[in-house]
Amino acid sequence: MATRFRTVQGGARQSNKEETYFDYSLLFTVLFLIAFGLMMIYSSSSYRANLDYNDSAHFLKNQLRSALLGIAAMIVVSRIPYHFWERLAFPAYIVSAVLIVLVKTPLGITSHGATRWLKILGFSLQPAEVAKLGMVIFLAFLVCRMGKRIRTWKGLFTLMIPPAIIGVMVWKITQNMSSAIIILGIAMLMIFVASPDYKRFIIMAAVGSAAVALIVFSIVKMASSPEMMEKLEFRGLRILAWLNPEAYADGKGFQTLQALYAIGSGGIFGKGLGESLQKLGFLPEAQNDMIFSIICEELGLFGGIAVIIMFLMLIWRLMIIANNAPDLYGALLVVGVMGHIAVQVILNIAVVTNTIPNTGISLPFISYGGSSVMFLLIEIGITLSVAKGIRLKDL
Amino acid sequence: MSGKNKTYNRKKVVVLFFFYMAAFLLLSVRLVDLMIFQSAYYTDRAQQLHERERSIKAARGRILDRNGVVLADNKTVCTISVIHSQLEDSEEVISFLCEKLELSEEFVRKRVEKVSSMERIRSNVPKELGDEIREADLPGVKVDEDYKRYYPYDALASKVLGFTGGDNQGIIGLEVIYDEYLSGEEGMILTLTDAAGIELEAASEHRKEPVPGNDLVVSLDYNIQSYATQLAKQVMATKEADRVSLIVMNPQNGEIMAMVDVPEFNLNEPYTLTPEYEALRAKEEARRQAAIEAKRAQSENAGEEPAKEETKSEEELRQEKLNGMWRNGCINDTYEPGSTFKVITAAAALETGCVTLSDTFSCPGFIVVDDRKIRCHKVGGHGAEDFTKGICNSCNPVFVTLGLRVGAERYYDCLKQFGLLERTGVDLPGEAGTIMHRKDAIGNVELATMSFGQSFQITPLQLATTVSSLVNGGRRITPHLAVRAVDEKGVSVESFEKEAGRQIVSAETSETMRGLLEKVVSEGGGSKAQIEGYRIGGKTATSQTLPRGSGRYIASFVGFSPADDPQVLALVVIHSPQGTYYGGQIAAPVIRQLFENVLPYLEK
Question: What is the ipTM of this complex?
Answer without folding.
Answer: 0.91
